[in-house]
Design a protein that fits this description.
Length: about 325
């Protein structure tokens, strides 16, 4: 009897995903199944129920009246099952696997170096970390948490701020020795600038001049798509980059990069969030433990020399 119940629940989950995705191929991709397997499962479900649930065509999928009824009941059953599982998970001791997706800079400079502390403190939790600058869909990738830098867009996801960091202009000592040190934002057109090739960063940099916030257009011969590439180019002496202290703080403290035009820094900050799928405010204990730990660990200058203090957010 238990085996039959499990199969019926799986059938409901696949059928609901087919309806949500609007077709067998899209549902198969999100479930990591083949389209033929999804189609056969729905056909088997229809045969067991003795009713057609969907009318198939080459362009779209249309629910029958029976399909609509089964879909509504399936949603209720699966919601009740999820609620029961979340109630148990929320009260349970942290254990299991936490799947984390993070950007390259944050992963390399903060999460990976700090991860051994978390694993030592939580012996019953395993971390599955993916480091990539590609923005993922948490549901499609089955990730528990994504670390995202920058402004949050409106979505159904939940987010918790885990850090914030001031932006700063930096260049290597070698570049400044060869090109000189800019004394005013108006000097920047005479320098090599490392800029970004995506909309929110590529056109201008903000400054505070005579007490007024202004933007200066910037153009660089080197354009990159992520902060780590900009950092690497700056370290290599290829020009001036604008990055967060959270990203380049250790380089500043070690003297590998030099902050520039601080008298004109407007003090704008970059936010770092832990993003997760919310379920009525409840989280599995393992996921909550990871987010709580991360928020407590990530601070600019923690464990770094005092030279970072003036650059704290």
């Amino acid at each position: 009897m238990a085996r039959q119940e499990i199969n019926r629940t799986a059938e409901m989950e696949v059928f609901v995903r087919v309806v949500e995705q609007g077709g067998f191929s899209a549902a198969a991709r999100s479930l990591r199944m083949t389209p033929s397997a999804v189609s056969k499962l729905v056909a088997r479900l229809e045969a067991r129920l003795g009713a057609r649930l969907v009318n198939r065509s080459t362009r779209k999928l249309i629910l029958t009246a029976e399909g609509q009824t089964f879909h509504e009941h399936s949603l209720r059953v699966l919601a009740d099952l999820d609620e029961a599982e979340r109630a148990v998970a929320a009260s349970a001791a942290p254990r299991g696997r936490v799947r984390v997706n993070t950007s390259v800079p944050f992963g390399q400079h903060y999460l990976l170096p700090l991860a051994p502390r978390f694993l030592a403190a939580h012996p019953d939790i395993q971390l599955d970390i993916t480091v990539t600058d590609q923005v993922i869909d948490l549901m499609d990738e089955r990730a528990d948490v994504a670390i995202r830098v920058g402004p949050m867009r409106a979505s159904q996801l939940m987010a918790r701020k885990i850090a914030q960091s001031r932006m700063v202009l930096v260049a290597s000592p070698a570049y400044l020795a060869a090109a000189g040190t800019p004394a005013h934002p108006d000097d920047l057109p005479r320098h090599e600038l490392i800029t970004f090739n995506f909309a929110r960063h590529c056109d201008s940099w903000p400054f505070l001049i005579d007490g007024e916030g202004v933007f200066r257009p910037v153009h660089g011969r080197a354009e990159v798509g992520d902060g780590e590439s900009a950092r690497v180019l700056a370290l290599a002496g290829q020009g001036i980059a604008r990055l967060s202290v959270l990203h380049v703080g250790p380089d500043i403290a070690a003297g590998r990069l030099v902050p520039l035009l601080e008298a004109f820094n407007p003090g704008d900050i970059e936010l770092i969030h832990a993003v997760y799928v919310g379920h009525g405010g409840q989280l599995p204990a393992r996921v909550r433990a990871f987010i709580d730990w991360l928020a407590g660990e990530v601070t600019v200058g923690k464990g770094e020399p005092a030279a970072l203090a003036k650059f704290a957010p």
